[in-house]
Amino acid sequence: MLFSCERVPDIRLSLNESLHMVHRKDWNTVAREAGPYLQYDHLLALEDRMGAEMDFRYVIYYNTQNRPIGIACFQVVDLEDRGSKYGDKLCRLGKHLGSRLLEDRRVRCLVAGNVFHAGDHGSHFVEGVSTEQRIVTVADTLLRLEKGDPFPTKASALIVKDIVQQPATSLPPEPPKGYHLMRTDVNMVMALDRNWKDLDDYQAVLTAKARTRLKSVLKRSDALHVRPLDAHGIEQRAERLQLLFDNVLARSPFVMGRLNVAVYANWKQQHGDALRFLAYELGNEMVGFSAAFITTDRLDAHYVGLENDHNERHAVYQRMLVDHLKCAMEHGVRQINFGRTAEQAKSNLGAVPEDMYFLVRHRNPVANKLVGPILRSVEPAAFELRDPFKRITA
């Protein structure tokens, strides 16, 4: 279906309920300049594996000459609050509005973005379209979807996911009219020195305390057998991998969607060595897994799974972080995107926080006004930021 975009009148959009219905050539025309997570085959694998649990929508934006200039993906998913400090406030608001979803600490969300990748990976426009225009256009599309698209269950909240603060300014982004800006937990990123070729080079620039912490992790995790899994291995072990992943979700204060881990088998076939999927074993038992996507200049740490009983004793998760660092140095990338959560452990290696934001709008106008102050008061989880590197003196 083709529509004009009210906020940006010289742009039209084509809305599709499935990627199978999308004009693949037009999508790829824009996606070739985007990151790996907006590529047609990557998204198609996700939809085919998750279609029974989630609703998807895809949009191609066209200019007046009918040339594709932008793409965006949208997902309908439940956001579950499992014990955050803001949950009680939202529950009281839900009771006031007669909303059972809010009372149950569960909100159905229509999300612009990819809920299974940390970062701004939900839309891409060709050169010449500013970041501000892209965000306004996508936010306007959310309103159109909420008003006119017959989803099986009506979404209560509209979200533009993971807006990153622009480097040129220290100010947070300005939300489009009707949307509220909400800070999320920070994304932990780490810049790598070009001189680091291996773990020895990295250790040489650490403080004595940081080296001791690193050696402790390596010693405690020495009993682990780490091996890569190919697509067949992932498919074969999908049930165990899902259990390990669900163990991690069970300890998360917020959950936005539950990935079917078997999709990694499809992604491994597509991405090859650009997807590193590692199994962590003790004896004959798999006690963890980690995944990471590697581009020319960045390593994006993705999901992990853990057996909680072994994690602390054998430093399984901390070993995964160290292995991400080793892999990044081996591939010569300049940055690691560690993602959210476990900020302290990532800070120990040298990662620093990057502010990220959601744009949020409740479909109920009264609720939207009431929820604004709550969303604006959200602060990222506190943690101690550590600097593991030696000070350089003149």
Relevant terms:
394 residues, Aminopeptidase, 2 domains, ten-stranded mixed sheet, seven-stranded mixed sheet, 35% helix, globular
Unreliable residue runs: none
Shape: globular
Q: Please tally the helical runs, counting DSSP H or I stretches of 4 or more residues.
A: 14
- Secondary-structure-based class equals alpha+beta
Strand content: 25-35%
The level of helicity is 25-40%
Total strand count, please?
A: 17
Number of separate structural domains:
2
What's the CATH C level of the largest domain?
Alpha Beta
Please name the CATH topology of the largest domain: Aminopeptidase
The CATH architecture of the largest domain can be named as 3-Layer(aba) Sandwich
- What's the mean pLDDT score? 88
Rounded to the nearest angstrom, the distance between the terminal CA atoms is 64 Å
* Cα radius of gyration in angstroms: 22 Å
Largest sheet, in brief, is: 10 strands, mixed
Detailed description of the structure:
This protein is an alpha+beta fold and 394 residues long. The protein has two domains: 2-184 and 356-376, 3-Layer(aba) Sandwich (Aminopeptidase), CATH 3.40.630; 188-353, Gcn5-related N-acetyltransferase (GNAT) (Aminopeptidase, 3-Layer(aba) Sandwich), CATH 3.40.630. Helices cover 35% and strands 27% of the residues. It contains 14 helices and 17 strands. It has helices spanning 24-31, 40-50, 87-97, 100-103, 131-148, 199-203, 208-220, 231-236, 238-249, 263-271, 308-314, 316-331, 343-349, 365-376; strands at 2-4, 12-16, 55-62, 68-81, 106-112, 123-125, 157-164, 180-183, 187-191, 225-228, 254-256, 275-282, 285-294, 298-306, 335-339, 352-354, 356-362. Strands 1, 2, 3, 4, 5, 6, 7, 8, 11 and 17 form a ten-stranded mixed beta sheet that branches. Strand 1 (2-4) and strand 2 form a beta hairpin. The longest helix is centred in the middle third of the chain and has 18 residues, at 131-148. The mean pLDDT is 88.
